Amino acid sequence: MNTAAPSHPDGTAPEPPLLDLSGLWVELKTGGRWRTVIQGVSLSLGAAQTVGIVGESGSGKSVTARSIARLLPRGARVGGDVRFDGGPGCADSVPMTSASFTRTHGRTSTRCTRSATS
Hints:
Layout: E1 19-30, E2 33-45, H1 61-69, E3 77-84, H2 98-105
Antiparallel strand pairs: 1-2, 1-3
């Protein structure tokens, strides 16, 4: 059994993903009940890669993006792992202030939304 880390054809080790989500789930309290709004979201995104999240209205695209940015409503239950630029996991329900968001993500990420009618 070969347990060596995979390498590029030139023999160098691959770079770790810039964004790595593993088993992300979110529960929000609505109408007095906890509801699972996303479950089991996993993806890896390398530097200079682009990803689009596509789905029907209400399928969890915005909640996924808000989870990555730590912009969920106060009290949201979050699990799984979100790692940005090799840093520690940050899938927790503690909201970031505008200043800490800018320090953490401001120069490296953006969110673009589009209205279905535009």
